[in-house]
Specification:
Elements lengths: L1 H4 L18 H11 L6 H14 L4 H13 L11 H16 L8 E6 L1 H15 L8 E6 L4 H7 L6 E8 L5 E2 L1 H4 L7 E7 L11 H13 L4 E5 L12 H4 L4 E6 L12 E6 L3 H7 L3 H10 L12 H9 L15
Parallel strand pairs: 2-3, 2-5, 5-6, 6-7
Antiparallel strand pairs: 1-8, 3-4, 7-8
This protein binds pyridoxal-5'-phosphate.
The site of pyridoxal-5'-phosphate has 13 residues, from helix 6.
């Protein structure tokens, strides 16, 4: 609020303007020294120090992004995710979902209103972009969070479901025989929750590696891994780390942080992925239809990434510019 009030030289009480970027870091440092004993200030100073000293980002840019977000004086830009927030959360996702596993290249994030929104948006955009169509078969890693069974059955999607069953006698792991179902080219996608809900067991390293070897033979297989429980496991490695080009990662802050009320999650896709590739290879008529759909967003809709299509579709394309979430969220 003080940053906002600074915009006016004569300030009627309760009136403020846009925050100013210039000198914001120095003002914050002074504030942190002055109020060092006030509860919460140490946390704030620690957060700024993490961003500056560990991530090597500009503390001033970060403070400005937070300040503008908290004041809520502008629509959040960029709409997919605020710039520095994407880097900070990306670092967290990298640490918790990839860890020490080898990983080449970068990934993009879309900040969403929980895992719920992630699922809703993904089903919709996958269909709108013809990656899955009515009558297509998708495999589900069973048992699974029931919406993954119910959504594909809706009139909206009309997908055919194939169960890949975990074995309760083998600590809820998928046998090779079950995973081999994914070798059938008829199976267009594999959706799973890992660690699983309800069994609360993560896929073994052996199964992850076996699945990755299948994906080598099925480079077109779309994978959606819902890893909202991944942060409960030590040294967790997501399928996203194993098969980054094929996999959409869903993460939510609801469960680990006991914050279902925040409505906060992210979708991650690798910058080099099969979704963009498959969209690029659609028949001419479908590509032209999609170019028209996204023509209000960019002069080169053909190049619009899958993850940016998700953002657009989440706001019925025409409201793309007001899609963003701000820093309080
Ligand atoms: C709870 C849950 C979700 C929904 O998460 P929210 O962030 O609360 O919307 C999605 N997937 C799984 C597996 C869950 O358990």
């Amino acid at each position: 609020m003080r940053e906002s009030e600074r915009s006016f030289s004569y300030m009627p009480e309760g009136v403020g303007g846009f925050p100013r970027r210039e000198g914001i870091e120095e003002r914050f440092n002074q504030f942190a020294r002055e109020f060092a004993d006030t509860p919460g200030v140490k946390f704030l100073a620690g957060a700024v120090s993490y961003v500056r000293d560990q991530l090597g980002l500009s503390a001033g840019d970060f403070l400005y992004e937070m300040c503008e977000g908290i004041l809520a004086c502008n629509y959040p830009v960029p709409d997919r995710m605020l710039k520095l927030s994407e880097i900070v959360v990306g670092q967290y996702i990298r640490k918790e979902m990839i860890g020490n596993h080898p990983f080449i290249g970068e990934f993009d994030l879309f900040a969403v209103e929980g895992g719920t929104a992630a699922m809703t948006y993904l089903f919709n955009t996958i269909r709108e972009n013809h990656l899955l169509k009515a009558g297509d078969t998708i495999a589900l890693g069973m048992p699974i969070f029931t919406p993954y069974i119910e959504i594909p059955e809706l009139n909206d999607y009309q997908l055919v479901e194939l169960s890949v069953n975990a074995d309760p006698e083998s600590r809820w792991q998928y046998s090779k025989k079950e995973l081999d179902k994914l070798r059938d080219p008829k199976v267009k996608a594999f959706f799973l929750v890992n660690p699983s809900n309800p069994p609360s067991v993560r896929m073994s390293e052996e199964s992850l590696e076996y699945l990755a070897s299948i994906v080598k033979e099925r480079p077109d297989l779309i994978i959606l891994t819902d890893d909202v429980y991944g942060t409960f496991a030590d040294n967790f490695v997501s399928l996203f780390a194993m098969c980054p080009k094929n996999t959409i990662l869903v993460y939510s802050f609801s469960k680990y942080f006991g914050a279902t009320g925040w409505r906060l999650g992210v979708i991650a896709t690798h910058r080099d992925n099969i979704f963009d590739l498959q969209i690029g290879k659609l028949p001419d008529a479908q590509r032209q239809q999609l170019n028209k759909r996204y023509s209000s967003i960019t002069t080169e809709p053909e190049k619009l990434k899958f993850i940016d299509r998700l953002v657009a579709d989440s706001r019925t394309v025409a409201l793309n510019h007001t899609a963003g979430l701000s820093t309080p969220q």
